[in-house]
Specification:
It contains 15 helices and 13 strands. With 349 residues, it is an alpha/beta fold. It folds into 2 domains: 202 residues, Transcription Regulator spoIIAA (2-Layer Sandwich), CATH 3.30.750; 77 residues, Orthogonal Bundle (Arc Repressor Mutant, subunit A). It is globular.
Length: 349
């Protein structure tokens, strides 16, 4: 049976094959994410970093992040992460309430979450805490306390995601069988607005729909993604983007491993049309505090420019966005409907 080390070996081999995808050979960021990378051993993480350094240049100024489960962050593991060059942690806390964590089927408890943050802050100045609102047990009181606790730790970055339940998932099946109640939109809306208000008062900038940071402490990796910078993704389900095309790897671990090790095709490529590039820019830019730059829109055909100008007028009239200094920004009300507003601005044949 293929295991974790096989995935690591396949990622290294994939890098050998695909390092030419990125035009630039200097990396600003490296991100270990997409699941539970903190279950990897230090040797496994280091082997990937050494493989990256064969093809790309990066130094101590590069942002090198690993997503981590609280239960994995022991003092020894944290020190080893720092020793091999990891300089940023994204800790999947999700909640500081045990009932929330049990509902979300997390392996850690509240104490482990708090301990992991305290240990991490002893060695890392740049950490992010991930929280989820809108869950079955995420009462208004619980969510307020979650935010208060996160603020108390004073991390550089906080991510707050709304719990989404899709058909076919465990949560989706529970709702179908009436084991849990559907999430109320109004509760999620109230908790989203409270998040903006509390974190803003605590000195965090709401720089992307789900992300808040102290000034100049934005996640550089994700910010580059939202600002349409090229990136190479490695491993099962990983996505890549070079400005003109998008690629995505096979999602199934076994099929990915077999394809990479047997030198068979393991990713799909989609060349982006002008329409795709316009829609992609709308989707990513609107989510950020930097907004949608009209000068960037002018790089597209006049058909897209006219469409944007016409459709944005109603959004502004509805006070879901403002136009300032040739940039369209979402208001707080607009952020509640970010995906819907993006769809209204999309150009669809």
């Amino acid at each position: 049976m293929k295991g974790k080390s096989d995935i690591v070996n396949a990622i290294v081999k994939e890098l050998d094959q695909r390092h030419g995808y990125l035009e630039s050979k200097t990396l600003e960021t490296i991100y270990f994410g997409g699941g539970t990378p903190s279950v990897m051993t230090i040797d496994e993480i280091e082997s990937i970093l050494k493989s990256i350094s064969k093809y790309y240049d990066y130094d101590s100024l590069a942002e090198i992040t690993i997503e981590a489960n609280p239960e994995d962050l022991t003092p020894q593991y944290l020190k080893q992460l720092k020793d091999i060059g990891i300089n940023r942690l994204s800790i999947g806390v999700q909640s500081f309430h045990d009932e929330d964590l049990q509902f979300m089927n997390r392996s850690h408890n509240t104490k482990e979450a708090m301990d992991s943050i305290e240990l991490s802050l002893q060695l890392f100045s740049d950490i992010s805490i991930d929280l989820i609102f809108g869950g079955q047990y995420s009462s208004p009181e619980n969510w307020t306390q979650n935010l208060q606790m996160a603020i108390q730790f004073n991390p550089a970055h906080i991510s707050c995601y709304s719990l989404t339940i899709e058909d076919g998932t465990a949560f989706g099946n529970w709702i179908e069988k009436n084991k849990i109640k559907p999430i109320e939109d109004e509760i999620q809306k109230e908790q989203f607005i409270e998040t903006i208000e509390m974190l803003s008062q605590a000195g965090y900038e709401h720089y992307e729909i789900s992300n808040y940071a102290k000034p100049d402490k934005y996640a550089r990796h994700n910010t580059n993604y939202w600002r349409s910078q090229p990136y190479l993704g490695l491993g099962p389900s990983a996505h890549s983007f070079d400005g003109k095309s998008r690629q995505w790897n096979i999602a199934n671990n076994h099929k990915y491993l077999t394809a990479v090790l047997d030198n068979e095709p393991f990713f799909t490529t989609e060349k982006l049309s002008e329409q795709d590039q316009y829609n992609e820019y709308i989707l990513t830019s609107l989510r950020t505090m930097w907004g949608c730059d009209i000068e960037r829109i002018k790089l597209f055909d006049t058909t897209y420019q006219d469409h944007f100008a016409t459709n944005s007028k109603q959004i502004i009239a509805d006070k879901k966005a403002i136009l300032q200094n040739e940039t369209l920004y979402l208001t707080t009300e607009g952020k509640l409907f970010a995906d819907q507003i993006a769809e209204e601005l999309f150009f669809l044949n």
